[in-house]
Structures are given as structure tokens and as C-alpha cells.
Amino acid sequence: MRPSAGEGWGVAGARAPGVGLPGHGPRRDSAATVCLAASVLAVTAAALAVRLPRLGDRPMHGDEANQAIKAATLWETGVYRYDPQDNHGPTLYWLTLPSLWISGHTLADSREEHYRIVPVIFGVGLVPLLWGFRRSLGSVAVVGAGVLTAVSPALVFYARYYIQETLLVFFTFGAMVCAWRAAKSAAWPWAAAFGLCVGLMYATKETWVLSGAAAAAGTVLAALWTRIRDGVWPRMAWVRQPRPWLAAVLAAAAVAVLFYSSLGTHWSGVLDSLRAYLNYWGRGTAGGEHAHPWYFYFERLLWFRPARGFLWSEGLIAGLAVIGLMEALVGRVGRCGPDPRLVRFLGFYTVTLAGLYAAIPYKTPWCMLGFAHGLVVLAGAGTWVVLCRLPGRALRLAAAAVLVAGSGHLAWQCYRLNYVLSSDPRNPYVYAHPSRNVLDLARLLDRLAQAAPENHAMVIHVVSAENYWPLPWYLRRFDRNRVGYWSDPAVWARDMAAKPDPAVIIFTPEAEGAVDAGLRVPYSKGKTYNLRPTDVQPAGSNGPPRGTLILSVYVREDLWQRFVAQSGAKLQGE
Amino acid sequence: MTMRTAKAVWAATVLGLVVWGAQAAEQPGTSSGEKLVVVDIKLPRPLFQGTPKNIKPAPTLEKYHEKPRPPFYAPEGVTNLALGKKVTSSDMAPIVGELTMVTDGDKEGSDGSFVELGPDKQWVQIDLEKPADIYALVVWHYHAEGRVYHDVIVQISDDPDFIENVKTVYNNDFDNSSGLGLGKNLEYIDDYRGKLIEVKDAQGRPVRGRYVRLYSKGNTSNDMNHYVEVEVYGRPAQ
User: Fold this and answer.
1) Which of residues 90-109 of B touch A (CB under 8 A)?
2) Local structure of A567: helix, strand or coil
3) What is the ipTM of this complex?
4) What confidence category does residue B93 fall into, taking pLDDT thresholds of 50, 70 and 90?
5) Do B217 and B122 touch, CB atoms closer than 8 A?
6) CB contact, 8 Å: B34 with chain A?
7) Rounded to 5 degrees, what are φ and ψ at B111?
């Protein structure tokens, strides 16, 4: 939809190299559009290629495991109930159903990739969404932002993470594109699409309020800046028309209610979705074990040096974003290049969102994704400045070479962080992540089940006052009625008196005394596994490291002997 | 010299003779009756003190002592054959450092003196260039902090692919998670002394081979595999 001159937020009469605006004749326009479409498609394919390989390689994070079990439960039972205390909104679970349906798997035989494919699709989808801004940003900025989306280590890492964050970023960006198009055209379908995206944001994660607040602040601040700098108020064609408003509100409400009421089967979920904000307000402001200093996100995104020889930085993106924003702030509406009003909005939105997250004590690194994506889109505008505004062909060529090298460096970081150090504490995006040792524990349990007469119906007790996730994910193949979890060792000891001797007991060190006292038959002891590894700590320190969680495993002696006999037999045959 | 001083000198002399005699009596012999000498294993400076608090005692873990290791005896002529020899690995693109660090003689353990291999089961392999009779290995995985490396398995072979004639001389994989067999050796805490692994066959003789391969599978601090140094004590096969 092309804006008419002087209408809405559209660019009137602007002409610039790399900006696909009318004025070069229909044939050249058409060729430029085809060229841009092909570029966006190619970048989309590249983004998919970067995100797709070895999706099941990284151990499940506790949060991912929790989400996966909820999605699989919805798939198996058809029942979902929103929990205002935890787990966030329902879209992730519902949108996972097609993957589970296509793969034909249940929880027991599903694998990590059946879940992680969902954020991958939405993460890749951020590239074609840029198409919606092609007339206002121009082809260079769109392709630049697309390439940076494809290789931004943060965007790639969390697009392979089965949590809500990438979906929230996608819906937020979708809302921006639709609002922009609605503002320019006053067409109610765009307004309805905007409402749909806002409803999906609401149904995805409670922190959508921060994205919404930042977008509102971005709109107001961009309008004010435009008034000051250009002497005009932006005219949004649809503001005084009821039809687009109505379409937006109805679409948002319908989607939100549909999801939170579990398709009309659980109406109190809608009310719970409002009650949840009290809980999340308390959690966000308290911080607790996730309280971090204000610069937590910026350190991880811009300059993270966890050990000698390791330095991670998305500084290229931040630098280009600053260049793009500065150009928009000092430039004037109507000059060549990306529409400064859109870039100003994106800039104020990104800065506000970053400020809000920095101010909130509760911090987990994936929360930075919203403003990290804002930086990427702004960096697209910065790319245009660098490639098209620098004087002289030689300088522009040199800048292009630097951009190519910088993008290559981002891609190299992307590879290292996603395929080499995907669960390593030196990775800036890894946070409270299980060690790969948990995979050994899972394999041991599966092999014990093969040795046990009752196979996966063998009884397993887990005794841990600590957060034992993602253990339930790795025990998903076992009969759920025969796997028990106790947070209090004393309660376990009391319950144990009336239960048969479990085949396996998994416990944390503080439960050892109670577990030893509660044993009635001999157990093979001493197998220990790191559920969560050590945080980065200085050389020479031998104090208790933060975050370490070690699990001890006792195996009933008769089962252990069976297992040893089976292993021995295998060895002789090799 | 006072009487008290004279008594002290006599007592010290007698005690010294007793200790020397006991050591001489304990000195292991070889089936060929060769003279054994103490192998001089140079140790780096310690990088941490005391028992690491983050590692819990377990029946599958050697009890940690800070006292010096007893001397290791071997026939004359036994030296570190690994020094400067070629190293290959399952991870030929280490995350930190170079494979040459495994046999470069630098055991300091600080940044810049270890190689870091990727996660999961990884191995390094040392080519001694010709068959040798191997009496012992000393392995320093990482000793800047107390760690236990999982599934430490040491094999010797004259086949570079470790398909034929493979002798496993150490294995502490207590749950066979590396798939090379259930290990009967205990896990241990790495420190500046390194892990001395005496190599003997069923008859108490050294093990002959040209290639030494060492496996590991992550550690108690992270998923990675590290080597500061590996020394292989032996002498060329006759």
C-alpha cells in the first residue's frame, strides 16, 4: 500500500539510493521490488539455515523442560489451564501442537527439536516481517536489518530456546509493522492485524506490558521530536476513524480471550491473566536470586569477557543502530533515506525498553531480546547511512568491506555460541543452564530401565529441596505414576516407610543423611552428576561455586548387578 | 658437644638408617632383576590450597590427600617419551590453546598452558613414534582449581586407530557412559601433582605400544575437556 503524498506518516517526495520509493518508473520499481523480494527470501533462508541444525544438541534448560511438558500435556490431554503464578502465557503451547501433530509424538518419545522448532520459525519470521517496512526503510536498510537478524548471536541463541521470548519479539514487531501500515493507510484490516498481534503479545508473556509501554513511549517521543525538529505533528489517518480502532480492539480482545480461556473451556483463565500482574510485579521488583545490576544486559550484549581468550560482542549492531538513530534525529522528514519518523520511533522504543529492563532488579538474559531486536532494525537504518551517505565511492566500498567483515564476525560468534559453547557458562546467553552431565544421567537411567525387569515402570524417587528441573524432562519415558518427587527429605523418609524400595534414588547432598537412614536394602552408591555446572569463577578459588547443583544417584544393588552383568556381556562381545 | 646433643645426633642417625632400610626394602623389583631408580617427575607450583569444597566425597572418588606422592621407581633409562611428540585428537579445533600443549613440557596450569577440547567424550592421542615399553603416565588435566574429570580412560596400542591390540590401562567410567566398558578405577581430584597411572600388564610387566590415547568426558566445573600436560614414562622397546 503506497501512501499518497502528504498523507499519514508516509514519506512524501523522498528519493534516495537504496530506498524503494516510487519515482523511477514502473519498470524499474517492479525490478527493484523483485530484487528486494529475492534478497529477503535469500536472507530468510540463511536465517533458517543458521537456526535449524542440531536443535536437540543442547541439554534442556529447566524452563524449556517445564514448557515442553506443559505443551505435551496439552497435546496428550487437550487440557490447558493458565497458571498466574508461573510459566507465562499460552501461545507457546498451542503453537507447538502442529509440530507434535506432524511428528506424531507424545511426551515420552518426543525430542527437543519437536519443541524448539517453534521459536525457530518465529525467529526466522522476523526477517520477512521487515518486508512490511520496505517503503519506509528502503531496500538497503531492510536487507541490512535482515542480515543482522540472521546472524545476531542473541537472536539466534534464543530462537533455538523453547521459551516465549522469541514469540513475544515476533508479535511485537508484527504489531509495529501493522500499526505503521494502518497509520499510513487507515485501512481497517491493518488495524485488525495490529489488534491480533497485540492480543498475541498479551497471550504470550506478561512482560508484553513493557514492550507495549516502550512502544507507546516511542510513539509519543517520536511525534514530539518530529514536532520540534520538523515543525509538524504526524498525521495518522486512522486516529479519528472508529472502524480501525474497533477492529483493533475486537481482534486483540478476541485473541486474548480465546487463548486464556483455553478456547472457551476455562473462563477463569481470562481473569487469572489479569491477576498475574500482581505476582509478576512483586517478582520483578524483588529480583531475588535473579537480581542483577543495571548493566547486566549491556555487558552481555556489548562486551562480555568471561575468561582469557573469550570476548563476545554485538557491538557492530549497537554501533550501526546509534548511527541510524543519530541520522534520523538530526535529519529532516522528506530528505532521502529511511523515513526518520519510523527510525525515531524505533529508537525511542528501543531505548525505553532497554531502560525499563535495566531498571527492573529481576534480570534473566533472554529478557534483552526485545531491545536487542530493536537495535538490529535500527542497525538496518545505520547500514543505509554507512553505505549510501558516506562521501566518495572508495569510502563507501571500504565501509561495505567493514560491514561484511563485521557480519562475518557475528556469524562466527553465532557458530561458537550455538554449536560449540551452547551450554557453557562463558556463553553470555547461557544462564543457570544444566551441564551435559545430565545427559549421562538420563542415559544411565534408560540403560538401568533396560536391565530392570519392569523396564520404564521401575520406581524412581527424586529427593531435592533445590530446583531439580529439567530432570522431569529426562524422566519423561518413565511411568509417571512411578516417579515421585520430594522437596523435604524428612517427608520422603516418612513416606518411604510405607513404600517398596525404589530402583533408583536421586537426591541432592543435603538429603544424603535422610536417604541413608531410610534405606532398607543395599544400594550401589556414589554416582554423582552435575545438574548445573559452576559459574565462571577466578582461577585459584576453591570455595563453593555459585549455582552448582550436584545430584547423587543410588541404584538398588540387585538392579546394579544386573546392569553390570549386561554391560560386561556387551563388552565381551565387542 | 654436650651429652644431650650427642644423643640427638645418634637418634637421628639411627632413624635415618631405619627409614633408608625400609625404603630400600619397599623398592619394587622387576622380573628381569633390573636396578630401579626414582623417576624424577617435575611438579608445577600448586594453584590452590586445601581440599576443594565443591567436590563431595563419594565411594567412586579417591580420598583427597595433600601429602606428597611416594616416589615412583622404574628401571634406569626410563624417561618421558611424550615430550614434544605429535598429538592428535577427536577435536582437532580446540576451543582454547593448541594440541601441542599436551606434550610441550609446560605444566604450570595457568591460562595459556592448557588446551581445551569441546564437550562430551573427547580424546587426545600421543604418537611416541616407535614402540615403547611404558611404565607409567602422569596426566594433568587442569589444576587451577579442584576438579574431577569424568570417564578418564587410558589406552595403549600399536594401532593408530585403536581398533586392534588395544590395552586399557586405566578406566574410571563407573557407569559405562563412555561406552568403553565399566571402569574399576576411582575418580580423582586433579591438582598440581597430576595423576600418576602406573602401567602394568597381568604379569606386572610394562605395556608395549606406540600410541597412547586418553579419554575424558567433561568435569565437575563444566562440560569441557582439558589437558595441561601428559607425560609417558617408558623406554624404546628392545
Assistant:
1) 95-96
2) helix
3) 0.78
4) very high
5) yes
6) no
7) -55, 135
Residues A308, B112: C-beta atoms closer than 8 Å: yes
Helix (H) / strand (E) element for B73: namely strand B73-75
- Compute chain A's Rg from CA coordinates: 27
pLDDT on residue A19: 47
Give the containing element (helix H, strand E) for B200: none
pLDDT-derived band of residue B163, with 50, 70 and 90 as boundaries?
very high
Q: Using a CB–CB cutoff of 8 Å, tell me whether B60 touches chain A.
A: yes
The rounded distance, in Å, linking the Cα atoms of B78 and B199 is 13
Q: Which of residues 500-529 of A touch B (CB under 8 A)?
A: 509, 525-528
Q: How many residues does chain B have?
A: 238
Q: Which long-range contacts (CB under 8 A, 24 or more apart) does A173-176 make?
A: A173/A126, A173/A129, A173/A373, A173/A377, A174/A129, A174/A200, A175/A201, A175/A215, A176/A215, A176/A346, A176/A349
Q: Record the cell numbers describing residue A390, joined without a space.
A: 558516506
Q: Which residues are B208's β-sheet partners?
A: B133
Query: Any chain B CB within 8 A of the CB of A544?
Result: yes
Rounded Cα distance, A442 and A300, in Å: 31
B166: which DSSP letter?
-
Total Cβ atoms within 10 A of residue A94: 18
Check: CB of residue B114 under 8 Å from CB of residue B222: no
Q: Are B182 and A571 within 8 A, CB to CB?
A: yes
Cβ-contact A267, A273 below 8 angstroms: no
* Nearest residue of A to residue B62, measured between CA atoms: A526
Which strands form A460-463's sheet, in the order they lie side by side? A483-486, A460-463, A504-507, A549-556, A523-532
Q: CA–CA separation, A341 vs A184, rounded Å?
A: 12
Residues of A in contact with B220 (CB under 8 A): 530, 533-534, 550
The C-alpha of B55 sits at a distance from chain A's nearest C-alpha, in angstroms, of 9
pLDDT (tens digit, 9 = 90+) per residue, B176-210?
A: 889 999 898 999 999 999 999 999 988 889 999 99
Whether residue B56 and residue A509 make contact (CB cut-off 8 A), yes or no, is yes
**Can you tell me the distance from the alpha carbon of A274 to that of A82, in angstroms, rounded to the nearest whole number?**
11
Q: Residues 6 or more apart from A509 whose CB is under 8 A from it?
A: A550, A552, B56
Determine contact, residues B39/B136, Cβ cutoff 8 Å: yes
CA–CA gap between residue A403 and residue A386 (Å, rounded): 9
Element (H, E) at B145: none
Task: Say if B183 is an interface residue toward chain A (CB within 8 Å).
Answer: no
C-alpha of A244 from chain center: 31
Q: A565-574: which pairs have CB atoms within 8 A and are 24 or more residues apart? A: A566/A447, A566/A450, A566/A451, A567/A447, A567/B176, A567/B181, A567/B182, A568/B182, A571/B181, A571/B182
- Most confident range, picked from A169-173, A287-291, A492-496, B221-225: A169-173
Cα–Cα distance for residue pair B176/B198, rounded to 1 Å: 22
Residue A21 zone, left/alpha/beta (φ > 0; ψ -120 to 50; rest)? beta
Q: Convert the pLDDT of each residue in A466-485 to its tens digit.
A: 889 999 999 999 999 999 99
By CA distance, what is A534's nearest residue in B? Answer: B221
**What letter does residue A291 receive in the DSSP assignment?**
B
Asked if residue B134 lies in contact with residue B233, where contact means CB atoms within 8 angstroms, the answer is yes
Mean per-residue pLDDT, B54-69: 82
Cβ of A539 within 8 Å of Cβ of B110? The answer is yes
Nearest CA-CA distance, residue B97 and chain A, Å: 9
Establish if A537 touches chain B: CB-CB under 8 angstroms: yes
Cβ-based burial of B76 (10 A; exposed 0-12, middle 13-18, buried ≥19): exposed
Q: Which of residues 307-326 of A touch B (CB under 8 A)?
A: 307-309
pTM for this one?
A: 0.88
